[in-house]
Amino acid sequence: MELTAGFEHFVRTDEPLAPYTWLKLGGSAEYFAEPTSVDELIAVIKRCREQNVTARVLGGGSNLLVSDTGVPGMVIYLHHPSFCGITVQGNRLTAGGGAKLSHVVSTAVGKGLAGLEGLAGLPGTVGGALHGNAGGNGVDVGQRTVEAQVVTRSGEIVTRTSQDLQFSFRQSSLDELVILNATFELESVDSSELTRRMQKFWIVRKASQPAGTDNVGYLFFDPPGLSAATLIEQAGLRGTKVGGAEVCAEHANFIIASSDASAGDVLRLAELVQGRVKEVTGMDLKCQLVQW
Ligand SMILES: Cc1cc2nc3c(=O)[nH]c(=O)nc-3n(C[C@H](O)[C@H](O)[C@H](O)COP(=O)(O)OP(=O)(O)OC[C@H]3O[C@@H](n4cnc5c(N)ncnc54)[C@H](O)[C@@H]3O)c2cc1C
Fold it and tell me: What cellular component GO annotations does this protein have (predicted)?
């Protein structure tokens, strides 16, 4: 049977991935699914499993480097409203894996629920954030997560409760194919005070990111107790370019890609930075971007 048979209304072939990523580069997905329901999601996952086709999930594309030669197999995009809902019950907020983290943060703050405001300004989706336990300023998304529903590679829906959830620095035990939704336990506080707190976090985060450009990627994990940006600056690498990829001069742990940049340029620049930082500071930097 054709991989796409019966799925023609939500699976496309040869879909360019650059527009879905922050770096805006790289090739196409062999197959690209935008399911409109959980049933369609599961059906496509099961079909991939039967036909031995690799499936991956695309979130907000803020941590992805797509190969210039494209991505074989199926890329699943959870953009339909069925995967982006946000509901609040008492102190618990549940959000779909495809929901934007920024919407989750502003919804929580609007309801006077504290605990996620430190993530204000962090790009991407709930699924992407939980996959890599995104965070900063001493806060990460895992700290408030009490439950998550996932879909396994064989198409089974499983609920992970606090006992099975483990989060550490930019790492998460949620490594199943799809994070379908997550529930956060928050604290009820005064909403206007909380709004001010969120705005402060937002301003601090925006000031630590390149402004005025979309074609940007966050390059390296901070080594324990250190800042990757400071190490890159110490190695004298601000503004260093390889092809169309450049180390941001103001915020050295970001890479800026020009419209003619390739994924190869980004990789070569990342290697150059790793090599120079090692030479000058003795430290090993690990790339944060997920490579497809
Ligand atoms: C300007 C900028 C600033 C950033 N600042 C920070 C920061 O301060 N702290 C930080 O930690 N990161 C930061 N990042 C990196 C990035 O924003 C985070 O890693 C973010 O959580 C990625 O989410 P996403 O939805 O964009 O995931 P994507 O980039 O789409 O995907 C990343 C990974 O998550 C997986 N994934 C995505 N959705 C799902 C899902 N529903 N189920 C299962 N797996 C899924 C993908 O398969 C992939 O492996 C920054 C990036 C940029 C561009």
Answer: cytosol
The three-state (H, E, C) secondary structure of 170-189, written as one string: CEECCCCCEEEEEEEECEEC
Quote the domain boundaries for residue 17. Answer: 11-81
Do 190 and 201 reside in the same domain of the chain? yes
Q: Is 39 exposed, middle or buried (0-12, 13-18, 19+ CB in 10 A)?
A: exposed
**Domain at 44, CATH number:** 3.30.43.10
For 197-213, what is each residue's pLDDT tens digit?
Answer: 999 999 988 888 888 77
Q: Which atom of ligand 1 approaches the CA of 130 most closely?
A: 21
Asked whether residue 172 falls in the same domain as residue 274, the answer is no
Cα-to-centroid distance, 59 and ligand 1 (Å): 7
Per-residue pLDDT tens over the stretch 140-179: 999 999 999 999 999 999 999 988 999 999 999 999 999 9
Distance CA 208, CA 202 (A): 10
Task: Please give the tally of structural domains in the chain.
Answer: 3
Q: Decide whether any atom of ligand 1 lies within 6 Å of the 58 Cβ.
A: yes
